[in-house]
Every structure is written in structure tokens, then in C-alpha cells.
Write a structure and sequence with these properties.
The structure holds three protein chains of three kinds. Chain A is mainly α. Chain A has ten helices and two strands; from the N terminus they run H-H-H-H-E-E-H-H-H-H-H-H. A two-stranded antiparallel ribbon of chain C has the order 1-2. Classes of the chains: A mainly alpha, B alpha/beta, C mainly alpha. Chains in contact: A-B, A-C.
Chain lengths: 288, 235, 361
């Protein structure tokens, strides 16, 4: 009994990571209906950037966030205005194919710079610290911290979107990106901001996941798939739903891993497909 | 007196399709211009070109004597051109108050603010927190007008504000126009409801197939002239 | 029969050689509008070298070439034809039916694994197992479509990738089919095809070339039919097509299922020829999706000749630059991105533009 509780708790904690992966994806899709197929690779890019900083300066990876987050945000803004804005329109092919191309380019560029070796950000004792809630039920402080961070990020985003004028502008742009211009607001700039925000969260996610599990240049696509599954399970257009979706995914994976370590990722995919079959719009959909 | 807005030989294209064939139109400060014409005559196209949503030659449109053709729409709002778009185009994800406040993003000097809009359309104050698209058609039209006014424009463009509304509601909406005029804005009112336009406009332009076919003081026009221009003289 | 040479050749001074003559005739025929020909000769070459006639002839010519070569040529020809098949199918799906899938590797691998299963478990002769594997893929595609089409647009794309991952991870667990490390076909089943390797290579080449030609013909016939009119209508204006009674969802599903079956056929052939299979190779995103997408994008999406042009470019680039490893892939990715941004109709589109401009002169 306790061991099953332990499995579920571990799964819920991992959900925090998946929710962070998903939040960045959600933001861009919400504002401009664009799915960034390279999103997972940008997360890994941030992890490698943190690795480079750590190797060069020796500071703790979490301190790198002070540089990574603004750098990723700036990169996202430039990428959106320079490249991705040109792909927006009625045709779904250009954004998909351009971001797919970006994914391949990033993976190979990382391969060239860092080799295919598995890496991990040195977090020190943080990742092994745990607290015992019940006999047999240990809660890792690091994943707990990540889950709380994910909730905080989503909460902050909700406040930003619903309580600030700029947030209102983002929501309005997602409704109608032509009429927003009649308000004196440049839609190209809003798109850039949305991507900047998305990349900032991706940067955070990259550093956090990089300290918890091994990563390599090829690790990007799985992050994309997990984030995507969390969104679909939780329901489109609902960031809190995405958090729950991430937790459900984590629990499914944990159960699968318990049955057989080789089943871990597969169990997650199957849970996703099952929910897709039973509830096509997700559990808590808000968007059409 | 320099016209507030002046278009000279304005043309507009949708891809290869030409929608406007050289429009000459002028709006003097404080004036109300009526723009009428059948569907497809080019009225909305004209407004979209003036607001910068469609490209135009720089000198074809002059605002306060400055060429603005082809300028970006966002920049023109700052200069003082605001539009109440066809179909209202409110933001469904935002409340009434948020829609209105968004209109004030561009901070221009002028009399209009949230309080004054609520004075103009009291019903909106009651429904301020409601999602904008949950209101009735007439109330939504009021929000759309209010949203455009919040930027304190020198020139307000109204695209078919009576569309889809019952006559009594149309009267409610048009009751606001004198107040808008009194506060200083010039207007171009695009309408299918000719009687309504005749009541508010100083001067009238009639478009047909992308060309101006009639223009003059509203008071001096009669039904026959307008019908002939609107539908085209019967050969 | 003396023909006038263009000023380019006149300037050179030397009389054109045979190759130049052919090129010249090709260029004139390709650019001749055909509607007001000035000489009977020009008219003949215009009709012969017009895009409609030229493309199938060129295709047939390419098909015949490896038959003249040696084993390596036939191996390359086999790979080329199989890739062309996959590219043509992806083009049908994305370029014509508007269904963007980044998970077609699901059916490449599925077809391959069904082949291996039929041969190993049921003792079916290898060549007979190929069409059976294709059929099985078509069958599996039915519930897959039901599931995946609950997702729209870009989410469908990622969903198709998830499906491929499910297949990959599942087959990695089946130890009787080699599990994670894979397996090879029993020698007897290979020798049953033919005892001589050159003959086997020849046979495989003929099959794959036939498949590529048949797939192109299938796409061509599909587009000319009422079916195809529906597809074009969807591509041009989906809501309008739907309102006119074109059952958009049904059409897309049918195309998806057909494409899945033929993709499975190609996959079965590929891994039969390879003899060895593993989940990572059979369900590889890079081999069966990334490369295919690059080929179709660079060649020209939504155009019949796109996949062929793309394959020629891809194999050419690979021959020249594959040694550069990751740089080569980065270059390929950047090329696809630039193509999508600057020339979305691909090289085929650029050629059409060139042709139009030359015709107007």
C-alpha cells in the first residue's frame, strides 16, 4: 500500500518538470496558434548553456539562471521577430516545417559543440536531499521544489495575463491579431514578447531538468512530447490544467516503471492515448 | 483650411484584384462625412487603407498635411486615427472594461476616459466586468465605439455601426454621435442605412465599384440623386 | 536538319556537341508555350519536352539507369527508389490532403516488423510477406486514424510522432523479435529469394523502382479522379469544400490509411533488403521523417515532380557532403528552413517561375 502511494507521489513530483515543459509550448500556441516543434531542443539548449557557464566559471547551476533566463528571453524575441513571424498565416505547414528544421539544426549544433556524451548539471547535494513523510514514503526536496516552482510560474503567468494591461494585450492578440493593431499595439511585438516569455520558462526548465536527469543533444524531442502530452491531457488553454496533466503523466510513467523499467515512457504514451480517446479535448479544456 | 484627412487618387488592391480606382475625398476638422454605397463598393476597403491595414502610396493619403499612405496601423492610432471596425471585433477573452482600457493604450490628450465613456453609455458601467461578447448587439456596438474613443482620436472612422441592430437600438447608438462630435472629433460614418446617415452627416460621398460617383452637402441631396448614384443610372 | 542555335552558343563559336544539342532542344521545348509554335520542329519538341510528357519519360529513364550499372549502383538505386516512394507518399499526405504527419516512421517500422514476424513466426516466404505486411499496416492505420484525427493541425503532427514512439517502445519489448537490440532474418528466407547476391540486388531494385513508379502513378491517378478534385478543394479552401459536401474528414482518413499501407510496403522492402532490423532503425525519426520532409520541402510540396527533384538534390548533397557529419545535417536543416521562408514552393516552384518568365519573352 505504502509503496504504491510512494509511486504516485514520485509521479506527481515529476509532473512539475512536465508542466514547465508544457507552459512554454502553451504560451506560444495560445497567443499565435504556433506549435514550436523545437521547443524541447531549446530546453536542452538552455541546459547546455548552463553547463558551459558552470564549466567556465565554476558557479552553481541555479545561479546560472540569472543569465540563462534573460538570454533565452532575448533569443526568443529575436527568433520570433526575425524568423517565426514570417511563418505565421493560414497555412500550418511553414511554422511546423521551419521549427522542425530548427530542431534538427539545434541538435546537430549541440552535437558538434558538446559531443553526444550524456551530461548532468552539478547541483551538489540538492538533488539527493529528501524528507520522510511516512515510513517508506520519501519526498525528494529537489523535485518538490520544482513542482512548487512550476505552480509559482503558472500562478505568476495567470496574474500577468489577467491582471496587467500587457497581459490583457496578449490575450487580446490571441483573440484577434489584426484588431489589436487598431488599439495602437504592434502585433509583431506582442508575438515576440510571447515567445520571449516562452523561452524564459524553457530556460528555467532546462536548468532544472539538467540538474535532475542526464541529458544529451538528442534529449530535446522527448521533452517536446512530454510537454505536449501534459497539455492535451490537461486541456488546451488552461495552464493549471497543464500542471495536472503533467502530474497525471508522471504518475502513469511511475506506475509503468514499477511494473517494468522499460515500460516507463511507454506507459505515459499509452495513458495519453487513452485520455485522447476518452476525452479528446482534455480534462479541463478552456480553448476552442 | 488644411483638410484633416485628404485622399488623392487613392487606389487599393487585394492581390491582383483592384478594389479602389482613385478616390478623392476630404474631411475637414470637426466635420462628419457620410460614406455610402452598396456591398462591395469599396467602403470598408477605403477605411482599411486609411487606418493602415491595407497598403497605399504614401502621398495618396494625407493627414494634417502629412503623407501617411502605407504607414503601420499602430502608428496611425498614435497620430489620432481610430476605427470602429465592421462587425465590432471586440476581444472575447476580455471584459467590457478591459476592452475599453485597451483602447486607451495609446495615450493621447483629450476628453475621453473610462468615466466619460460610462457617462455616454451608462449601460456599460453596469456590465463592466462582463465578458464583452456576452452583451447584446447594441451594447457591443457601444463598447466598440467607446474603445475607439478611448484613444482620443482626431478622426473617428465608423464602419457600419448599425449592422445587425434593430431600429430602436440603432437610434440609441446614434444618439451618442452628437456628443462625440461636440468633444472635437471629425468622423467618417460608413453606412447602408442612408436615412440615418443623412441625419448626422455634413457631407456625403457615394461609392460604386471603387469610384466616387456622388459627393456634396447632405442637406442639398435628394433621394433620386442618391439612388441613381448608389445603384448606377439605368441605361 | 539544321537548327538555329541560341546566341549563347553562337558566341562560343564552336558547333554544339550532342549533349549541348539535346540540352538546347530540351530548353526550347520546356520554355515553348506550345500554343503558338513557329516551326513544326519546335512544335514537336515542345510537345515532347513539355512538363507533362517530360516528367514521366525522365522518371522512366532514371528507373532504367541502375539496371545498366553494377551492384553498388543497384543498391543506391534501391535506396533512391524507396526514398522516392516515401517522399511521394508524404507529399500526397501533407501537400495534397493537408495532413502533416511527423510520424510516418511508425508505418515504415510497422511494415518492416510485420514482415519479420510473418517470416519468422509463420514461415511465410519473404517476398509474399511484403504485401501482407502492407495490408497489416493499412489495418492498423484505421484505429490509428480514429485516434489521431481527434487532434488538429500541429497537434496531429506531434500525436503522429507519439504513435510512432509507442510502436518503437512496444517492439523493443518483444524479445522474440529481437527486443531492443534487434534481429536478422533467417538465411534460408533470404536464399529462397535467390542464391546469388547480384540477382537479389537486381530483384530488389526492380521491385523498389516499380513501387516508386506505381506510387507516382497512383498519386497522379488519384489527383485526376473525383477523389483528387476533393483533395485539391480541401487544400485550396477547406471550409468551402466542406460546405459543398466534400466529406473532408473521411477523405483525409482514407488518404492517411492508403499512405500508411504503401509506406508499410516500402518499409517491409527496405528492411527485407537490409536483412537486419532494430527498433531504433525501423522507427527512426531522422531517417524516415526528417530526411523525407527535407526532400519534399526542397523539391516542392504539393507538386508531382517535387519528390523526384528533392531526392536528386538530397542524394547529390549526401554523396558530396555526408562525410561532414553534423555540419551536413545542419546545412540540410538550414536549407529546408530557408526554402520554406523564401521559396515555399521549392525548386519545382522556382523552375515553374523561371519557365513562366522565359515564356513571357
Amino acid at each position: 500500500m505504502i509503496s504504491w502511494l510512494d509511486i504516485i507521489v514520485q509521479g506527481i513530483l515529476v509532473g512539475g518538470f512536465y508542466a514547465l515543459f508544457a507552459t512554454g509550448l502553451s504560451l506560444i500556441f495560445g497567443v499565435m496558434r504556433l506549435v514550436n516543434l523545437a521547443h524541447g531542443d531549446f530546453i536542452i539548449l538552455a541546459a547546455f548553456a548552463a553547463l558551459a557557464i558552470v564549466q567556465f566559471t565554476g558557479i552553481h547551476p541555479l545561479l546560472c539562471l540569472a543569465a540563462i533566463i534573460p538570454l533565452m528571453a532575448a533569443f526568443g524575441y529575436i527568433l520570433q521577430r526575425g524568423v517565426l513571424n514570417r511563418t505565421l498565416g493560414k497555412n500550418i505547414l511553414p511554422p511546423l516545417l521551419v521549427t522542425f528544421g530548427l530542431s534538427i539544426v539545434i541538435q546537430n549544433a549541440l552535437l558538434l559543440e558538446f559531443s553526444a556524451d550524456s551530461q548532468k548539471l552539478p547541483m551538489g547535494n540538492l538533488t539527493v536531499a529528501s524528507v520522510q513523510l511516512l515510513p517508506g514514503l520519501n519526498v525528494g526536496l529537489y523535485p518538490l521544489g520544482v513542482l512548487i516552482t512550476a505552480a509559482a510560474v503558472i500562478g505568476a503567468l495567470q496574474i500577468f495575463l489577467y491582471k496587467t494591461p500587457l497581459g490583457a494585450a496578449l490575450r487580446a492578440t490571441s483573440d484577434d491579431s489584426t484588431t489589436i493593431r487598431l488599439m495602437g499595439i504592434d502585433n509583431r511585438h506582442i508575438f515576440g514578447l510571447a515567445t520571449a516569455l516562452s523561452f524564459a520558462v524553457a530556460g528555467l526548465a532546462g536548468v532544472l531538468i539538467g540538474g535532475y536527469t542526464n541529458f544529451s543533444p538528442a534529449s530535446g524531442p522527448s521533452n517536446l512530447l512530454f510537454g505536449f502530452e501534459a497539455i492535451i491531457i490537461g486541456g488546451l488553454g488552461n495552464l493549471w490544467g497543464t500542471l495536472i496533466g503533467g502530474m497525471i503523466l508522471g504518475v502513469a510513467q511511475a506506475i509503468g516503471a514499477e511494473i517494468n523499467p522499460g515500460y516507463q515512457v511507454l506507459a505515459g504514451h499509452i495513458a495519453f492515448l487513452a485520455i485522447l480517446l476518452a476525452a479528446p479535448r482534455g480534462l479541463f479544456p478552456r480553448m476552442a | 483650411m488644411i483638410p484633416l484627412l485628404e485622399t488623392t487618387g487613392l487606389t487599393a488592391f487585394y492581390g491582383d484584384f483592384q478594389a479602389l480606382f482613385g478616390i478623392d475625398l476630404a474631411v475637414r476638422p470637426g466635420e462628419v462625412i457620410g460614406l455610402i454605397g452598396a456591398n462591395g463598393a469599396g467602403k470598408t476597403t477605403f477605411l482599411r487603407t486609411v487606418t493602415g491595414l491595407l497598403p497605399a502610396a504614401p502621398d495618396a493619403i494625407k493627414f494634417n498635411g502629412q503623407p501617411i499612405g502605407g504607414a503601420r496601423a499602430e502608428a496611425l492610432v498614435k497620430r489620432g486615427i481610430a476605427m470602429v471596425p465592421e462587425g465590432r471585433k471586440l476581444f472575447p477573452s476580455l471584459s467590457v472594461e478591459e476592452n475599453l482600457s485597451l483602447g486607451a493604450t495609446v495615450k493621447r490628450d483629450g476628453p475621453w476616459n473610462l468615466q466619460k465613456i460610462f457617462q455616454l453609455f451608462p449601460i456599460l458601467e453596469e456590465r463592466r466586468k462582463s465578458p464583452a461578447t456576452k452583451l447584446s448587439g447594441g451594447q457591443q456596438q457601444m463598447v466598440a465605439i467607446g474603445r475607439a474613443l478611448m484613444s482620443n482620436p482626431a478622426l473617428l472612422l465608423c464602419d457600419e455601426i448599425s449592422l445587425g441592430l434593430a431600429p430602436i437600438v440603432i437610434a440609441d447608438v446614434y444618439r451618442a454621435l452628437p456628443a462625440i462630435r461636440a468633444a472635437g472629433a471629425a468622423m467618417i460614418v460608413v453606412e447602408q442605412d442612408i436615412a440615418q446617415v443623412m441625419r448626422v452627416a455634413d457631407r456625403l460621398y457615394c461609392l460604386r465599384e471603387g469610384r466616387v460617383v456622388l459627393e456634396g452637402a447632405a442637406a442639398a441631396m435628394n433621394r433620386h440623386d442618391i439612388a441613381a448614384a448608389y445603384f448606377g443610372a439605368v441605361a | 536538319m539544321k537548327e538555329e542555335s541560341t546566341s549563347f552558343f553562337k558566341k562560343k563559336g564552336a558547333p554544339p556537341g550532342v549533349a549541348k544539342k539535346l540540352l538546347l532542344r530540351f530548353a526550347r521545348g520546356w520554355t515553348a508555350s506550345g500554343s503558338a509554335p513557329r516551326e513544326a520542329e519546335q512544335k514537336f519538341f515542345a510537345r515532347f519536352f513539355s512538363k507533362k510528357r517530360f516528367f514521366p519519360c525522365f522518371l522512366l529513364l532514371c528507373a532504367l539507369l541502375p539496371l545498366l550499372g553494377d551492384n553498388t549502383d543497384r543498391q543506391l538505386g534501391f535506396e533512391f527508389a524507396a526514398t522516392l516512394t516515401l517522399a511521394t507518399l508524404w507529399n500526397l499526405l501533407a501537400g495534397y490532403a493537408g495532413v502533416v504527419s511527423i510520424g510516418q516512421q511508425a508505418f515504415v517500422g510497422l511494415g518492416a516488423y510485420f514482415l519479420f514476424a510473418l517470416v519468422v513466426f509463420a514461415g511465410v516466404p519473404a517476398l509474399a510477406a511484403v504485401p501482407l505486411a502492407a495490408l497489416a499496416c493499412g489495418v492498423i492505420a484505421v484505429p490509428s486514424a480514429r485516434l489521431l484525427f481527434r487532434l488538429r493541425g500541429p497537434f496531429f503532427a506531434i500525436g503522429s510522432w507519439v504513435l510512432a514512439e509507442v510502436f518503437r517502445l512496444t517492439f523493443a519489448q518483444i524479445s522474440s523479435l529481437g527486443g531492443g537490440s534487434g534481429m536478422s532474418l533467417p538465411i534460408m528466407s533470404i536464399l529462397a529469394i535467390s542464391h546469388s547476391r547480384p540477382e537479389r540486388l537486381l530483384l530488389f531494385y526492380v521491385f523498389s523502382a516499380a513501387l516508386a513508379l506505381a506510387t507516382t502513378a497512383l498519386v497522379f491517378a488519384l489527383l485526376k479522379s473525383r477523389f483528387g478534385l476533393g483533395l485539391t478543394a480541401i487544400r485550396d479552401a477547406e471550409p468551402a469544400a466542406a460546405s459543398l459536401g466534400v466529406d473532408v474528414m473521411w477523405l483525409k482518413r482514407v488518404v492517411y490509411i492508403i499512405v500508411a499501407a504503401v509506406t508499410g510496403l516500402a518499409g517491409a522492402l527496405l528492411f527485407l533488403q537490409n536483412v537486419r532490423i532494430s527498433p531504433d532503425a525501423a522507427f527512426s525519426v531522422n531517417d524516415w521523417t526528417a530526411n523525407i520532409i527535407f526532400i519534399v520541402v526542397i523539391g516542392g510540396i504539393g507538386r508531382l515532380e517535387g519528390p523526384l527533384i528533392g531526392c536528386l538534390v538530397f542524394f547529390g548533397l549526401r554523396a558530396a557532403f555526408a562525410d561532414y557529419g553534423a555540419w551536413y545535417l545542419i546545412g540540410l536543416g538550414l536549407l529546408a528552413i530557408l526554402m520554406m521562408l523564401l521559396a515555399p514552393a521549392g525548386i519545382a516552384g522556382l523552375l515553374d517561375q523561371l519557365r513562366n518568365r522565359l515564356q513571357k519573352r
